[in-house]
Amino acid sequence: MNMPANRLNVVIFEDNAHLRDSLCILMSTSANFKVTSAYADTRNLLKNIEQNVPDLIIMDIEMPGMNGIEATRIIKQNYPQVRIMILTVFDDDAKIFHSLCAGGSGYLLKSSTPDQILQGLKDVYHSGASLSPAVAERMVRFFQNNISFEKPDYSLTIKEKELLHHMVDGKSYKMISDAMKISLETVKFHIKNIYRKLHVNSSSEAIVKAIKQNIV
To answer: CA–CA separation, 128 vs 43, rounded Å?
Structure first.
């Protein structure tokens, strides 16, 4: 999938004024994204989303009032088509897990470079997910240490399991296409089938379910 002809609308929720301004400047230098609004907290959350109708949201976790995880959950319940990138200083397993379960499509640390942030947003737009290998690894360890695994049969094919494994590793559609030597359209076809079989609607849901139930 190519980036759209028009720049994607991005809304930012970040209480640090310096970082918020830096993200706005970063988006202004990109041919793919533009910031329509930036907020220091999540007050008037749904009203702000309705006014801006973003394609993507950059969401901090620790903010005054409602935190970013709960805000993500509320946004996804009301605007399921909006994709949310969590950008935070927190790299602990529980916050990663709860952010993704709330509906976050990606999870990056604030120590990420500008190029990594822009690439993460592109990955979220293209594939509905952006997890760095390090974050994916932490999530695997979280489940291994805290969950009693069960392994139901979802009738996934060998190819579908291989592809799901790549998703768990944090690969984008393009990276999966290259690794499996198949076209992007074939990747999308398999992922559509994976969603149907796992009874999920997004990459983050598929990844959480795959790890939690030891599917791959």
So the answer is: 26
CA dihedral 14, 94, 96, 25 (to 10 degrees): 20
Q: In this structure, is residue 61 part of a structural domain?
A: yes
Q: What is the pLDDT of residues 67-121, one digit of tens each?
A: 999 999 999 989 988 999 999 887 777 788 888 888 888 888 888 899 989 988 9
Q: Could you give the CA distance from residue 91 to residue 42 in angstroms, rounded to a whole number?
A: 21
Domain that holds residue 45: 8-139
> Among candidates 143, 76, 216, which has minimal Cα distance to 86?
76
Partners of residue 33 on adjacent β-strands: 8
For the stretch 21-38, pLDDT in tens is 999 999 999 999 999 999
Nearest Cα to 82, choosing from 128, 23, 116, 127?
128
CATH number of the domain that 79 lies in?
A: 3.40.50.2300
CATH of the domain at 199: 1.10.10.10
Most confident of 9-13, 73-77, 149-153, 200-204: 9-13
Tokens describing residue 66: 């409602």
Backbone angles phi, psi at 58, to 5 degrees: -100, 120
Using an 8 Å Cβ cutoff, are 177 and 183 in contact? yes
Under a CB-based contact definition with an 8 Å cutoff, are residues 118 and 33 in contact? Answer: yes
Copy the structure tokens of residue 197.
């079989």
Domain count, the chain: 2
pTM of the model: 0.67
The DSSP annotation for 119-141 comes to: HHHHHHHHHS-EE-HHHHHHHHH
